């Protein structure tokens, strides 16, 4: 400690110097962000570098989250603790050594699809275990049916892919060549995977170095004390936000598709607000099922909803959820017992988040938006062999849907779901440069946004044609294909997305329902993603804004008349005011009956 | 490949930089060894007026000037204030909405009130052409001229003042864009036309479209501005060379600026970085980090081997909801810590700094212009680091008592600390934030800041730079001449510079070097034409070659310099080794056995300009100390009586020892116990930083 901070600390009644505190508050998130930057820049698969399906974090020796990057996939929010606590239980804190590297994706604890591979290292400072540096990242393949987005079409964890349960792949700095060979031999793109492993490991090492530099500088005792103070402060901020919500019990429900031909999953949420405490009870949600990959073990749905309601722009640490109680009983779809296959583990989460928000629609009328597309996007993937390059290829992109209208403005068009923050689609030119396909269209899907005083955002319509034979991911966009994004306060629902396919030689596109399809060269697939729900009655929308939407082609003249009661002049350049008044009166009468 | 020879210099060189608040002028008359400086308030309604105000203040007759370099916020203002032209967009069939859809990302992951960028061209004014190339440049569907003519009519009827054209894969073969451009320019006289390949020939359609639309959107007004400047300078007797500052740190001809206004966007902060590189080079210190602190933010940029770092893209209006621009810009990391940054207590009682800033209006409490919230500047005044009586040479006395009162009332009660302890804490937090920014350009890029000297500029640089250097164990600090005018000074030191890119995707193993040579030759020819326009002598020209490479399978590439010799002889081994080395350096790991692939070829054409040479100091005053005052340095409870020196009175070779302060017109350098100061022959203050 320098002379100056000592004298400041002396006078501080809490014993902790507020200046050092603020300096470290900024320094800790900078470490997980730097780890993230490093990983993204050096990774080998699109899921990491474009789609940013990963998280980087530091955890303390209790498995509590010191800091986590914010940016990519939000459904990794604060979900590494369970892996670290499991590792500690397995090895004991004494069972780790400097230079160890542990790999884990086992669903009994990690609770996600097997592609999400956790790599972590114990962090030592002066021979004392002080933290863990952790990177979870989506590998392009982990064997089984896992190629691409996850093991679609699998039926149990073994058919999904390779399971790795807290294995030390390095011990005391020495790589275990046998285990690494075993992994290489059982996955499809071993070069890419080993490249990603190198990047994950390098990011962990970076986290170790940066954290130790802080300990050297501010002393281990000070930093660890500051971390606990930061947890407490973050929790206090969240509590203050919850205290502003009226006490009460709030409920809502929605549905998510089951496997084809089976009952839908029910998403029933009950949220209790009492003072500064919130309990999110998901006991009412369906039980785990053998025939659908939606099983998971995760608090992410509750956490994302809570974080957005409390401190959306604050850094992530263990305190962010200290005042939240999540209830999910064993055997629930989000607390599935092993073995339960989890290929689409995240697909129900956007609906879970939407439903929790919906529960607050009356209590927080100025905040809660109508439903968004509720899916992780149209998961375009095409894989096969490219004869021109004499190599296998995987092309992927996520095409997102619309967001719900908000109490003060329209929903955004074509934006990533609540579970995907800084996730990006893949540029057309990138796909065409690297893989044998052609993108015929990437367009906004007119009239897909729910009508409302504030309109729902539009979904997209993306058409892709293969130039060689290949395996397509051509199922419906996400798992809410039977349940349209709802409107709020009189707003109408968004239009549901779907996927169409046309084999070469066929005249028309057909609805595509099966997630995995083999397609000959020149097969064409059209992905349409849902529009968001509308907010408020469409009859209250300013007619000039409706006119603008029609001019821009977001809304057709027919929809303007039928949903918004806005009649345009024959040339489409202006609102026909008398006809609009009459039409709106007519619609209001119809609505009243 | 730096062949640039310095041309003999002689006459009067003038640089005028229009910033957000002030317009700065620095001029140098080498024949007489005279430096002129002037500052005037920026006049937002008629920006160029600030130029004439400064010329008048400095007493410069335009007829005497040999060249004028100009930097201006005109382009960025148009974009931020959304006052650009009504813009139409012409794209490949099927991609009408690519510009609106963008990348679909939401960087503020948990914020459901997020905002996506608002397009600068409306959907109704976006037109699709039924043409198509494959990624290899094969024509899948030829361009129909009659279709483009129909679109031109529709654009004319829409009243658009500018048109952007971006076709898929036009970076491989721009023939369709060229053809469409010819038709549009012929049929739409007076309408500003931008073609994507004329701006950037790099893949990724959304970012390229966004860049092209931005160029078109700001084009009419920016080129009108540049034209008006040219005319008015001519009318007032200027017959020398007029050059415009670019975001890349180079200058360009007015003709280039009119077709590439997007190159002017971020020219404001880069002058200082160029100057830092040049000052370092002359002092024999080639690795420096430029550190600039203004009213709202601090900026830092790394210079290695006297070369500034360039980023190949950025966002106008911030990453979360701004417009991507795929164009070279000096790589600057910025943090929200400036002199006007406000210190406040958050809901849990924690001391926070920024990002809100009191700016210059109302400004810090001590400015007595209505500011009520304590700022970094107020903390400096309370601690005696900035002299209340000597600020701006005494032209603007500061109210220390008011600053003290503000901190006492607003911050002390919740923190339980004394006024000087809080002031001290504010500065510590500001220093830590700025140190993170310096780490951002160094440690995060694989450089150890201890191998660099820190060059301080801006009014706020010199008071804080020594504390930052100590924080990062940086051993050497340079306070250049005219730190508060450094950006304008840098403009006098800038080369003419043009950057070109061409996507050329293939494995290193399959390189056809004849093909690569041909592309580089074509880029060099385009560069040569641009240097012709800027009037660069042949012997002052140089070319630098780069390849964007990555391991097969990676997405992000590294920009690797290559030599003409390596290209001529097809030396893939040397290129691979350099890539592995840079990857290892930047990311701490490399995979030497993995195959490499090329993404883009890049070329920088440079025209060296006569550099100004600061005269050796004549002053050798025996008595540079003007007084002393108590200053709180390391200990917030006990001030140290520090000598105060006047910078103008410091002579070459003079040596001083901290603690002390050195005051000059626009800034104050604060030195700590043990810092060793030497005055260079050309006036720079060189500090050997004491270890903390």
Automatic annotation (TrEMBL), chain A:
It comes from the Bacteria. One of its GO terms (molecular function) is 5-oxoprolinase (ATP-hydrolyzing) activity. GO terms for cellular component: cytosol. Pfam families: Hydantoinase_B (PF02538). GO terms for biological process: glutathione metabolic process. Residues 17-538 form the Hydantoinase B/oxoprolinase domain. InterPro entries: Hydantoinase_B, Oxoprolinase-like. This is Hydantoinase B/oxoprolinase family protein. It comes from Microvirga alba.
UniProtKB/TrEMBL annotation, chain B:
It comes from the Bacteria. SUPFAM superfamilies: Actin-like ATPase domain. One of its GO terms (biological process) is glutathione metabolic process. Residues 14-187 form the Hydantoinase/oxoprolinase N-terminal domain. GO terms for molecular function: 5-oxoprolinase (ATP-hydrolyzing) activity. Residues 208-499 form the Hydantoinase A/oxoprolinase domain. Residues 514-678 form the Acetophenone carboxylase-like C-terminal domain. GO terms for cellular component: cytosol. InterPro entries: ACX-like_C, ATPase_NBD, Hydant_A_N, Hydantoinase_A, Oxoprolinase-like. PANTHER family: 5-OXOPROLINASE RELATED (PTHR11365), HYPOTHETICAL 5-OXOPROLINASE (EUROFUNG)-RELATED (PTHR11365:SF23). This is Hydantoinase/oxoprolinase family protein. It comes from Microvirga alba. The lineage of its organism: Bacteria, Pseudomonadati, Pseudomonadota, Alphaproteobacteria, Hyphomicrobiales.
């Amino acid at each position: 400690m320098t002379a100056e901070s000592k004298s400041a600390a002396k006078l501080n009644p809490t014993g902790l110097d507020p200046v050092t505190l603020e300096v470290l508050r900024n320094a800790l998130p900078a470490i997980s962000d730097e780890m993230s930057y490093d990983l993204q820049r050096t990774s080998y698969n699109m899921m990491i570098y474009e789609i940013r399906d990963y998280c980087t974090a530091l955890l303390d020796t209790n498995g509590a989250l010191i800091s986590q990057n914010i940016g990519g996939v939000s459904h990794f929010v604060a979900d590494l603790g369970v892996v670290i606590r499991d590792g500690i239980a397995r090895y004991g804190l004494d069972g780790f050594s400097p230079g160890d590297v542990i790999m884990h994706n086992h669903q009994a604890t990690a609770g996600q699809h097997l592609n999400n591979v956790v790599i972590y290292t114990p962090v030592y400072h002066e021979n004392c275990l002080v933290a863990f540096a952790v990177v979870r990242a989506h590998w392009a393949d982990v064997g089984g049916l896992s190629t691409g987005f996850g093991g679609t079409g699998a039926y149990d964890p073994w058919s999904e892919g390779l399971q790795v349960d807290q294995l030390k792949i390095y011990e005391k700095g020495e790589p275990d060549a046998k285990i690494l060979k075993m992994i290489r031999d059982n996955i499809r793109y071993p070069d890419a995977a080993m490249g990603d492993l190198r990047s994950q490991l390098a990011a962990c090492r970076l986290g170790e170095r940066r954290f130790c530099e802080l300990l050297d500088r501010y002393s281990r005792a000070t930093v660890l004390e500051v971390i606990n103070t930061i947890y407490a402060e973050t929790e206090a901020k969240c509590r203050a936000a919850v205290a502003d919500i009226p006490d009460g019990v709030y409920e809502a429900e929605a549905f998510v598709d089951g496997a084809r031909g089976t009952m839908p999953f029910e998403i029933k949420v009950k949220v209790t607000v009492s003072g500064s405490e919130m309990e999110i009870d998901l006991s009412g949600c369906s039980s785990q099922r053998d025939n659908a990959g939606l099983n998971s073990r995760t608090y992410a749905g509750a956490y994302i909803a809570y974080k957005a309601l409390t401190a959306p722009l604050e850094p992530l640490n263990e305190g962010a959820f200290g005042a939240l109680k999540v209830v999910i009983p064993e055997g629930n779809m989000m607390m599935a017992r092993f073995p339960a296959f989890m290929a689409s583990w995240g697909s129900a989460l956007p609906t879970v988040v939407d439903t929790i928000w919906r529960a607050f629609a009356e209590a927080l009328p100025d905040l809660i938006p109508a439903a968004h597309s509720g899916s992780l996007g149209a998961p375009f993937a095409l894989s096969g062999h490219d004869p021109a390059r004499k190599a296998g290829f995987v092309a992927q992109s996520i095409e997102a849907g619309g967001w719900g209208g908000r109490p003060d403005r329209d929903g955004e068009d074509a934006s990533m779901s609540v579970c995907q923050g800084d996730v990006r689609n893949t540029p057309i030119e990138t796909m065409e440069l690297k893989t044998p396909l052609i993108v015929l269209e990437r367009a906004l899907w007119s009239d897909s946004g729910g009508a409302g005083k504030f309109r729902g955002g539009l979904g997209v319509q993306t058409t892709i044609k293969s130039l060689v034979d290949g395996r397509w991911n051509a199922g419906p966009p996400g798992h809410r294909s039977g349940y349209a994004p709802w409107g709020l306060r009189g707003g109408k629902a968004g239009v549901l997305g779907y996927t169409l396919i046309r084999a070469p030689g066929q005249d028309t596109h057909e609805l595509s329902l099966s997630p995995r399809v083999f397609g000959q060269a020149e097969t064409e697939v059209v992905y349409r993603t849902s529009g968001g729900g509308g907010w408020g009655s469409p009859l209250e929308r300013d007619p000039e804004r409706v006119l603008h939407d029609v001019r821009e082609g977001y809304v057709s003249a027919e929809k303007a008349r039928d949903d918004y009661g806005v009649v345009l002049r024959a040339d489409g350049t202006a609102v026909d005011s008398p006809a609009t008044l009459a039409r709106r009166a007519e619609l209001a009468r119809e609505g009243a009956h | 490949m730096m062949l640039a020879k310095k041309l003999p210099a002689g006459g009067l060189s003038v640089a005028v930089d229009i910033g957000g608040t002030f317009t700065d002028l620095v001029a140098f008359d080498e024949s007489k060894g005279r430096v002129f400086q002037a500052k005037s308030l920026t006049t937002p309604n008629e920006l160029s007026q600030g130029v004439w105000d400064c010329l008048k203040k400095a007493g410069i007759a335009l007829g005497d000037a040999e060249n004028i370099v100009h930097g201006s916020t005109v382009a960025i203002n148009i974009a931020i204030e959304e006052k650009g032209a009504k813009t139409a967009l012409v794209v490949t069939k099927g991609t009408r909405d690519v510009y609106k859809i963008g990348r679909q990302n939401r960087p503020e992951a948990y914020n459901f009130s997020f905002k996506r960028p608002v397009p600068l061209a409306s959907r109704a004014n976006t037109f699709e052409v039924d043409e198509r190339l494959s990624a290899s440049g094969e024509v899948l569907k030829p361009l129909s001229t009659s279709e483009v003519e129909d679109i031109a009519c529709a654009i004319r009827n829409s009243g658009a003042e500018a048109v952007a054209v971006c076709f898929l894969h036009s970076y491989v073969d721009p023939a369709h864009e060229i053809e469409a451009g010819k038709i549009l320019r012929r049929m739409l006289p007076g309408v500003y036309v931008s073609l994507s390949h004329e701006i950037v020939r790099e893949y990724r359609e959304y970012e390229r479209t966004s860049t092209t639309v931005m160029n078109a959107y700001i084009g009419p007004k920016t080129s009108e501005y540049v034209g008006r400047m040219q005319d008015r300078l001519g009318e007032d007797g200027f017959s020398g060379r007029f050059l415009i500052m670019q975001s890349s740190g180079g200058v360009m001809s007015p003709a280039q600026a009119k077709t590439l206004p997007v190159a002017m966007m971020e020219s404001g902060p880069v002058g200082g970085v160029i100057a830092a590189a040049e000052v370092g080079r002359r002092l024999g210190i080639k690795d420096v980090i430029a550190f600039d602190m203004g009213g709202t933010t601090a900026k830092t940029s790394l210079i290695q081997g006297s070369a500034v770092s360039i980023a190949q893209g950025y966002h106008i209006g911030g990453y979360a909801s701004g417009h991507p621009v795929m164009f070279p810009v000096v790589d600057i990391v910025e943090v929200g810590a400036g002199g006007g940054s406000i210190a406040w207590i958050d809901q849990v009682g924690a001391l926070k700094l920024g990002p809100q800033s009191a700016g210059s209006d109302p400004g810090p409490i001590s400015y007595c212009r209505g500011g009520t919230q304590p700022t970094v500047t107020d903390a400096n005044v309370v601690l005696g680091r900035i002299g209340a009586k000597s600020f701006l040479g005494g032209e603007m006395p500061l109210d220390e008592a008011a600053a003290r009162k503000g901190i006492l009332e607003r911050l002390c009660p919740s923190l339980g600390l004394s006024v000087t302890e809080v002031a001290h804490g504010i500065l510590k937090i500001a220093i830590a934030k700025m140190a993170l920014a310096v780490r951002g350009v160094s440690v995060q890029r694989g450089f150890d800041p201890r191998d660099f000297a820190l060059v301080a500029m801006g009014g706020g640089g010199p008071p804080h730079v020594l504390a930052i250097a100590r924080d990062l164990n940086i051993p050497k600090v340079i306070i250049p001449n005219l730190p508060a005018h450094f950006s304008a000074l840098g403009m006098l030191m800038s080369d003419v510079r043009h950057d070109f890119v061409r996507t050329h995707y293939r494995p290193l193993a399959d390189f056809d070097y004849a093909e690569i040579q041909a592309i580089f030759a074509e880029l060099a020819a385009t560069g040569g034409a641009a240097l012709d326009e800027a009037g660069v002598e042949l012997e002052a020209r140089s070319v630098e070659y780069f390849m964007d490479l990555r391991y097969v399978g990676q997405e992000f590439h590294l920009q690797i310099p290559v030599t003409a010799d390596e290209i001529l002889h097809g030396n893939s081994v040397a290129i691979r080794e350099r890539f592995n080395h840079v990857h290892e350096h930047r990311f701490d790991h490399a995979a030497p056995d993995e195959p490499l692939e090329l993404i883009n070829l890049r070329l920088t054409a440079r025209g060296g300009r006569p550099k100004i040479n600061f005269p050796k100091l004549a002053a050798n005053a025996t008595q540079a100390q003007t007084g002393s005052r108590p200053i709180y340095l390391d200990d917030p409870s006990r001030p140290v009586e520090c000598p105060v020196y006047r910078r103008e009175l410091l002579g070459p070779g003079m040596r001083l020892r901290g603690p002390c302060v050195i005051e000059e017109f626009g800034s104050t350098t604060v030195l700590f116990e043990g810092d060793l100061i030497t005055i260079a022959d050309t006036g720079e203050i060189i500090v050997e930083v004491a270890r903390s």
